[in-house]
Amino acid sequence: xxxxxxxxxxxxxxxxxxxxxxxxxxxxxxxxxxxxxxxxxxxxxxxxxxxxxxxxxxxxxxxxxxxxxxxxxxxxxxxxxxxxxxxxx
Length: 89
Prior knowledge:
Blueprint: H1 2-9, H2 17-30, H3 33-45, H4 47-51, H5 55-69, H6 73-85
Helix pairs in contact: 2-3, 2-6, 3-6
């Protein structure tokens, strides 16, 4: 539900523009796997929060709380570093 919106909009629907610009730069340089790496990075950094919620809480988390977390450029930069370090096979 949440991931399809991320993939279809390349994260532009919910996340700040500086983060989206970085994702698109990486997409153009490294290819489509970057999109999956960013999604996996978002899930990995949210693991503890997600394990504490029910299904409805998880949906709200993805819709509201997760995008707010990346309003900080520092958090977005850390996410991009994590996404770049991940290998999807």
